[in-house]
Amino acid sequence: AESLLQQEALAEPASRLQGLRDRDPLTRFDTEVRPPVRLVPERCQRLRCRDDVATPQVDSGLPTAEEAYNFFTFNFDPEPLEEAAEQKKERRFVEDRGVEEEEEEGGGGGEEEAQVEDGGEGESGSEEEDKEEDGELFIDETAQDFLEVKKAEYLGYHSRVQRESEVLFTPSLRTVPTSCKVPENMQPRYLEEEGLYVGERPPVSLANQNILENRILQQDEKWFGDDGRVLALTDPIKQSSTRPPLFNLEEDLDPALQTVYRKALKTRHASRYVAGLGETAGRCQLDVDVSGLIFSHHPLFSREHVLGVRLVQLYDQHLNRQHRNITGLLTDKVVHAFLLVLLLTCLLCLANRNTRRLRDVEQEKDRTLLKSTLKVWKEMKALREFQRFTNTAYKLHLRKQEVNQSRDEQDFEEEIQMELVELQGELEEEYQRKISQYRQQLEEWKAWRKKQVDLLTGADDEDEDEQEEKDLGSEPPKPEPPERQELSLLEQQVREKAARIRRKPGEPILVPEVTLSEQLTYKPFYFFPPFSDVARRSLFVKVLYNDKEVSRTDRRPLGADFRVHFGQIFNLKIANWPESVRLQVFEASGSSSALLAEVFVPLPESTVLTGSAPPQELEFSSSQRVTFNHEGVGSDVPFSFEADGSNKLTLLTSGKLSCCVSWAVGENDIPLAPPTSQTPGGIHGALRQTDAIACIGASGLSDMKRLSKWAAESRLDPNDPSNVVLMQLLTVASSGEVQVPDYFRLEQLQEEFNFVTDEELQKSRRFRLLTLRSQEVVEFRNYKNVPAVEREVSEKVFQDYEKRLRDGEVVDTKEHLDPHRAVVAKYLKKIRESVMNRFLIAKHHFLLSDLVQEDEVPSIGVLGLNIFKLAEPKRPLKPRRKERKKVTAQNLADGNIKLLVNIIRAYDIPVRKPHPSKPAVASKSARSFTEAFVAAQSSQSALHGNDWPLNQVQVRPFVEVTFQRSVRQTTTADGPNPCWNEELELPFSAPNGDYSTSSLQSVKDEVFINIFDEMTFDITEDDRERGSTVHTRIEKHWLGSVKIPFSTIYLQSRIDGTFKVQSPPVLLGYSKERSLAGEGGYDSVLSLSEGSFVTLFITIQPQLIPGESVREKFDSQEDERLLHAAEAFQRDAALRFPGRPCLTTVIDISGKAVFITRYVRPLSPPQELLDAFPNSPQEATELVARYVSLIPSLPDSVSFTSICDLWSTSDQFLALLAGDEEEHAVLLCCYFLAMGKKAWLIIGTAIPEGPTAYVLTYEQGRYLIWDPGRGQYYGQYDTFCPLQSVGCLINADNVWFNTQVYDAPMRMGFDVSRSKLWKPFFSRAFPNPGLSSVQPEELVYRRVDKVAAAELQDRIEKVLKEKIMEWRPRHPTRWNRYCTSTLRHFLPKLEQSRGRDVGDEHRLELQSMLGDYRISGFPLNVPFSELQPIVEAVYSTGVHNVEVSNVEFALAVYVHPYASNVLSVWVYLASLVRTR
Amino acid sequence: MAELHIIGQIVGASGFPRSSLFCKWGVHTGGAWHLLSGLREGQTQVDCPQASDTAFWSHPIDLHYATKGLQGWPKLHLQVWHQDSFGRCELFGYGYCHVPSSPGHHRLRCVTWRPLGSWQEQLAQMFVGGGPQLRSPDVIYTGADRYRLHTVAMGTVELELGIILRHFDKHGVES
Predict the structure, then answer these.
(1) What span, in angstroms and rounded, lies between the C-alpha atoms of A52 and A36?
(2) ipTM for this prediction
(3) Do A774 and B69 touch (CB under 8 A)?
(4) How far apart are CA A226 and CA A1010, in angstroms?
(5) Membrane spanning segments where (chain A) (predicted)?
(6) What is the pLDDT of residues A430-480, one digit of tens each?
(7) How far is A607 from chain B (nearest CA, A)?
(8) B101 - beta bridge partners?
(9) Which of A93, A690, A882, A1457 registers the highest number of CB atoms within 10 A of its CB?
């Protein structure tokens, strides 16, 4: 005990120290500075720390107020005080300890101190500390002064226990008597004994129970039950375990829960793994056994080899047959059956007959085989003899089996008899059958006959009888009894057959035998090239699995017998599903090797296993062509056995590869084959979804019925989403449609989730409108503001579009009046559409320059020039032209664009004639100059006649401009050469509000500039009022017009010039002031041209940028060199003369670039044109020109919406009957060439059409320029020639570019031979390669169809009359029949004279007839294309506008047909006003 | 009969190893969707950013769809390409994102990836450019067989899309 106490005493401080050390220093830092380590050094440390703390306080500056106070009031005698305090503290501490010993034990000194400070002396403590501080600061004393060493305090164990026992209660371990536990005066009550269930209490040790009971008793609480025990619940712990104990975890685990450790796998990038091959990867093994190779043909075969191989083949066949011994078998069968037949009669008869037939066939085969074998052998022998050596060892032995002659014959006879008997039986049977049939028919016939007779003799009506007879129908033929076949004939047949197919009796049986025993003749053999080749060749086989080479055999030399033996087995351990196994046979000679053939080996069934699998012989062949110059026959090369080379034979390299592919057998005889259930490729992820059956793991059920049965049995949950596909399939199957739909549904469940059906979506007008707009369909391209609500989109929107779609299919004959034209129009439309589509696509391709506008950096030269310009003197009287601002098309709207037409002056306007004047000149020779002049004179003199209403003026013309149905007119001027100088402004609106370039280009509207004469009639009735009132009526009379298409204005951006007014050949009531022209000869071209002229300036405000031509590079069939030269030529031309057009290649109608000279070729015009004027070539020329001009003109830019000049050939042009100026010019040029003229094509610019093509001819030392579109010609020096500049000349041989200073035809020379003036394309350096023409050899013209023309004439007349009445809604329209018939009579004459110089004559004639009328009118002549232009032309003349009440009209139409449906339409329209 | 307007722009791309990028984009829809107007695919300009590494294209997208079902909701697929100083273009990233299905304005960030290729290809790409590309660009948005690809993450393309739905509520689609 003593030692124990000591131990404890020792242990105590240690534990305290431990406690101190263990304390977290941070917590102490709040009160003390540092955790003391030991009691003694603690002080020192503390002091040091104080130092540490205090020093910075001084350093930091001012002391606190307290410090300052202490400083002055300190008495520097702290020692005893502190000691006392310490002692006091210590004492109290001991006292405390006495009480708190137990709890404080673990606490340690820190807490003690804390307690001290927290206690009542806390303040004093701090004071002490303060004092200490001060002392430390100011009194220099050692640590010993403050410290006192004390021995460790120890309280004796006994005293401590004693003290503790005063405070603590220790429950005893003794059992508490029951009496203490139950309430007083009560016996303990045991519920168990009373029969109540008391659960088992949790087990508690008796000692613990006693302690607890004692304690509870002490505490005096009610914790005891009636039985005197502590209240307790029953033991909650279940006795039996719910979870079975897990012993030896490894073995007994449910296999489903077992896990397997696997190594990290490297993924293989292959698509198809063998299913369930995870752990068995590589367990499948395919054995490929390549055993050998036999060539049945090889390029190195000699002829003899070929024959040998054939022999062997035949022999093999023979052996094969013999092996099976079909013939013998069947013969036996026949014999046996015959015996049976004899016994059992005809039951087996039929079977036997079949067998016999089979045997016959086989026998025949045997015989032919034998025959061909012999033949081959004979050939071979012949060959060996011929070549005098043998290099194959094949030899055929024929073994004869001698047979017993008599017996054989007997057999033969027997056989024949047997067959005969059988045949007889057969025939008999047949005969019986026929007989029975015959009898039956006979019965029927008799019955019918009887009925017939009955009816005939019966007393019924004749009619009924007939009826009956009819019912009975025709009489059935009386049946003929069948005939028996002759027996002798039968026998003959049988014998013949036997002779053919069977061995003759007594003939020895031949058994062929092929051996390899032939002696090879060696001498020439070594010099025989194939042999050395053969020795060099070797072969090997590559094995490819799923198109990957897995291994290859060794090289084996090709034997002299062309057999190779490999005998190698490859074991392929496979992971991927086998798709293909291929063997590639390579032939190597030297180091190079070539693929000879590929053999696909069928994949073995999983039941085909190594060992049991038979080797397969796979045939292969290669189509490679091999030829040798030596004896080898080669491959794919015809050769012959015959000396004369006939009977050629072509053999391909071929052979047999014997190999065997099978699944390997592993240990324990487990086949290493993949499971069969898996369908190849079924595992693929995406496919899996579509393969309903594979999806649920029941692959291999391809039968629908079985599938449905299986589904019913396995009770598939129809609501399981993974079964949806299957359920769908089953519903299809159960509904009777067993077959699977053979289409593939992309989105299977789409339909169920559709909001609306497709039809409804299609029906939506709004969506349709939006789609059409975005597709840039013409009608909707610029449609704005599509309504947001469906009902606001009216059905009408689509009417036009749908109509157009419908019209596309139906040819509208009414519009075109002529079926041919309708077809042409349709064709043209198709071309137009395809070209338009092409350009629409091209339009959406932008270049950088289309998107980025980059101003060019001005060069020094330009800058300098501009600076000089600043210094120039100002010349206000010479205004400089300012460049107008160009506007791009997209920022335009309706009303922004105006057409400015400046009408300056006109020349040679026809002047009026006094109308009822006497027929002054009745001359027929109106063409003569003098008389025409006289006529003019007379007309002038007549002006002063009495009847002239306002007789001061000759004519009062004004100009009316019509564009897009808006009309502007100038003021009225006087005289035949008026000067207006007026600017008219016309609004322009684009079709559909689309101001894009392409749309503007395709505007078809034309600007009509009509010249009218304003006539005033004094209608004042009363002469008395004449002085005070003016009552006049104004009439306007059409004098002529100029038509300028808008597209021309748009492309040219301005049109400036003098134009010839298109005036009718006859103007009733008017005459030319001067009619100088008239003579048809070329002399007249020297003089001023006839006709009126008007000077105009037209432009668009603001200026629009014309579209650029399509940049597309057209493909061409021309020579590359030619194209390059053409490009260079054009580039050079553009560089030297930027403005001059130069054409070398043009685009034909199929969109290909063609060299231009190919278009020029002499083509003869229709014969009737040449025949019309046999004596006058000039007349004929003009007629041809007129013919060409009558073909309607249709600008390409209008039809093709873009600047793209398509040149059609002349036959296409004539077929289409529509074309540009170029086509007209080409055709005219070709005609002229055919007529023996010197003619060229001029590429130049003209007004108003801009860049165009004219024709130049050289006649009688002068050049004539022909306008092909109008059929007119001009001299070179004609001022009014519309041709403004000449770019190049083209004929069939060459292209010449104009390199002269001037390009106006008047100022240049046309002699192309002068190289100074004209630069030829084909020169000596680059001669013409002799380009063939694209034009046809000759043009085929359709005959003139007069009937159709007459029909057309009637229809035009009818339509025009209707139209005129329509245009005059407020007035009645009366037709003067007499006048009409006169006019009609007159029109053919006009056509004959081509509208020239018949005016006077005609007028006189007319006026003499209709003396009482004032007539105004004129004939119009238009080429016929469609009806609409004719109507437009008539409308523009304004004849119908006469509003006099008693006006009458006369309308005559004449259609003159030319060849190929070219029609000239004349419309004569006149208004008649009765003057009396 | 429901309609969907997609109006927005491809703002730009960032986080790519090199700048000078352009983007080919397209919208893929299911069979139930009909394009009423707008372009369903296009290509932006090449943007060479001067200041930061973000290439800005601000390429407008304006599509109007009519649909008869929700299946095949439009998705945008993008290909970011890089044009180097020699004018050669190489693929920098594929990416796709669904067009948002709620109306309103959305800012989308579409991350992109690029096929990695074998080490030889990577080496070649490092020195001479080019690089592996998808044989069929459908893979960008179909997702089938993608597990076989090895890819590198590339930058992100930023999109701003405004979505307007119409009549979807009529068919029971709440948005």
Answers:
(1) 15
(2) 0.86
(3) no
(4) 139
(5) none
(6) 888 888 888 888 888 888 888 777 766 654 444 444 444 444 445 556 666
(7) 33
(8) none
(9) A1457
